[in-house]
Amino acid sequence: MFALAAAIEELHPRHDTFPGEVFMRLSADALQVAGVGPGDPIPYEGLRESHLGECKFRGRENRKIQFAILASASARGGIEPDLLDEVAWWQTDDFWWYALAAAVAVIRACASRMHLSVPAFVQQLPARWKSTLQPGGAGPGEP
């Protein structure tokens, strides 16, 4: 997780939420590919401990990772979170990092649910994007 964050960090412009939105959409798509929904949810309780054990969160960090995970789930459900209003109180420029951590946890949980390795599960995501990017095709998350 930390090596991945270090490799991606240069993509993040200061004072911007990017690429956090991309990681939220990736999480939402992973949930869709795994068939996660109201009838078959992934429990929030234990998600971080089971699928993001290398990260320890304290104090406000708990609220930040919670927001990033739940915002991804809400995006999957069709509600766009108000990122700017939420991250304004954080007083740091780290939403992208929490969104990445949330994506890692969600992808690991989805892979586990489907009894796949993470690389095998991730291979299913590009196929979904490829089919939606054809001329006249719906965008990701659209019917």
Describe this structure in words.
By secondary structure, this protein is mostly helical. It has one domain. 59% of the residues lie in helices and 0% in strands. The chain has seven helices and no strands. The termini are far apart.
Defining traits:
59% helix, mainly alpha, globular, disordered C terminus, 143 residues
SSE run: HHHHHHH
User: Helical element count?
Assistant: 7
Strand content: under 5%
Helix/strand/pairing category: mainly alpha
Task: Please tell me what the overall shape is.
Answer: globular
Number of strands: 0
Low-confidence stretches: 132-143
Determine the fraction of residues in helical runs and give it as a percent range: 55-70%
What is the alpha-carbon Rg in Å?
15 Å
Please identify the oligomeric state: single chain
Distance between the termini: 32 Å
Profile the largest sheet: none
* Overall tally of structural domains: 1
Instruction: Provide mean pLDDT, rounded.
Output: 88
Question: Short description, anyone?
Answer:
With 143 residues, this protein is mostly helical. Helices cover 59% and strands 0% of the residues.
What's the layout of helices and strands?
Layout: H1 2-8, H2 20-33, H3 47-51, H4 60-77, H5 83-88, H6 95-113, H7 118-132
